[in-house]
Structure formats: structure tokens, C-alpha cells
Amino acid sequence: MSDRVPMTKEGHQNLHAELKKLKFTERPAVIQAISEARAHGDLSENAEYHAAKEKQSFIEGRIIEIGDKLARAQVIETENLSTDKVVFGVTVLLADIDTGDEVKYRIVGVDEADLKSGKISVTSPVARALIGHPVGDSVKVNVPSGVREYEILKIYFE
Fold first, then answer.
1. Rg of the Cα trace of the chain?
2. Which distant-in-sequence residues (6+ apart) come within 8 Å of 49 by Cβ?
3. Which CA distances in Å does 128 have to 30, 87, 112, 115, 153?
4. Where does 8-77 show beta strands of DSSP type E?
5. C-alpha angle with apex 104: 102 to 106, nearest 5 degrees?
6. Strands 91-96 and 146-156
7. pLDDT tens-digit map of 127-145
8. Is 52 exposed, middle or buried (0-12, 13-18, 19+ CB in 10 A)?
9. Bridge partners of 140?
10. pLDDT tens for residues 48-92?
């Protein structure tokens, strides 16, 4: 896998923080839990031991995954980008043509996406449809519930 992983500076910092927590807090804690569970005797019927080993496996897998993403990270500096059209890292204010409802999305990397906080992945259908369009454009987006049409009201960086 040599594909670059686009992310914001904030997303890159968050992955570094998660990696640090996994390596220096979570990993030692699970090693200690495994050690304590071993002390209880028969490992074949020791639920605490099996749970700790499973957690250790998850932690080690996540460490490898984050390390790979950080190695392939393409941190996109948004400070000097234009807001003439929708690009990675911008926040977009949209109006649903049918309902008139306004919605705000920030286009971020895959690992940063969080719909509840208004962050959508650059690979999502909405983001892919919006990329390259200026303010005032009407964009049709194929979403699971059908086709939605949005007007781009504002493009800016937060």
C-alpha cells in the first residue's frame, strides 16, 4: 500500500496522540492485566486472561494501522489555499434545494470523518460531488436515500 493518506494537520496530530496513548498507556496496562490474569492459574478457563489477550491483539493491530497511516500521511496545509472552490479542508455551507435546510460540512481525511461534528470524508459521495465547485453552484449528490441537490452558499476555512 503506497497510496498517500490525505489528512488535515489536526487529524495528523490526533493520530500521533492516539499512537502515543496506545504505546505508553494502553499497551503497558494490558501487559500488566495479562500478568495478573496469569497469576490466577489455569489459563484455559481464565476469562480475564483471554479478554486481556484479545485487547492486546486489538491494541497491537491499531498501533500497526496508525503507524502505516502516519507513514503514508499527506498533511494538507489549508492556510494558503483559496476558497474560490471546494477543496480538501474547507468548510462548506450548503442549502438543500428541496427543503431549504442549511447544512455545514468540513471535508477531511477518512480517519477524521465524524458526521455528528459536521466532518465528512473526502471520499464520501457528498464531498466527491462538491470538490471543484464554486459558491453559487448547484450540485446533485447520489446518497443512499436518493438524489439530493444542494446549492453552495459559502466556502471557508475554520
1. 21
2. 34, 37, 38, 40, 43
3. 41, 10, 16, 15, 17
4. 73-75
5. 165
6. antiparallel
7. 999 999 999 999 999 888 8
8. buried
9. 149
10. 888 999 999 999 999 999 999 999 999 988 777 888 999 999 999
